[in-house]
């Protein structure tokens, strides 16, 4: 069945109450070989800075304790999802460098200090303008940041702002997206496939199949799959659709990460 789930939030995230041990027991019941816990680390977001404080000291200690406890039963990876902005690079990279992370997801959750879900960014922008701004920011972020393994839910900008913002304008943003993919590939960074889109009624995973095909066409090969679950019931949700898609385009491997190094695992 499925190998791993590489995007999981627990009680240490500002938006989850999920007990960590229950995640690992659920993962074992799903016959997973490994999981990466990837709680949110964010910095300097308007009105939300408090919410997103992650106590890294306690968090890392807890994950490492469980890693030891579950040895031989489940391979637990110390991960984190870093919400990046161009001006927070130094602070976040310093924080990440202090701990022995296996895996870091870099995501763009905010632009100019405003969370994408907050509504401010949509106020004076239509869909086309918002998507252009988003991908310009992602490009800036991936050029500046170095301490990450994969880029998270790369085109999930369609999730926020209501109906009029739904639907990715891939052709209009083709050049920007291409440059993002080329930058990731040249830096040896991967992409994650994030299945949360189905839960947001988008009827797709992030990024869309066109972007994924393009990533492989350009020579990309580092890929992880994550549910972005905030409750244990969402672990590996809709992974069957991703596995079927990857097999249909001839992809044979996904990645695990060990101390930030990708390890290729054959798709079952
Ligand atoms: Zn995210
Ligand atoms: Zn997440």
Instruction: Indicate the proportion of strand residues.
Output: 15-25%
Q: What is the succession of H and E elements?
A: EHEHEHEEEHHEHEHEHEE
Please report the number of helical segments.
8
Name given to the CATH homologous superfamily: Metal-dependent hydrolases
Q: Overall pLDDT, averaged?
A: 96
Number of domains: 1
Overall SS class: alpha/beta
Bound molecules: zinc ion
Strand order of the largest sheet: 1-2-3-4-7-8-9
Verbal overview:
- The strands form 3 sheets. Strands 1-2-3-4-7-8-9 form a 7-stranded parallel β-sheet. The protein has a two-stranded antiparallel ribbon with strand order 5-6.
- The chain is built from 8 helices and 11 strands.
- Helix content is 32%, strand content 20%.
- α5 packs parallel to α6.
- The chain has a single domain, classed as Alpha-Beta Barrel (TIM Barrel).
- The longest helix is centred in the middle third of the chain and has 18 residues.
- The site of one zinc ion (ZN) has 5 residues, from loops.
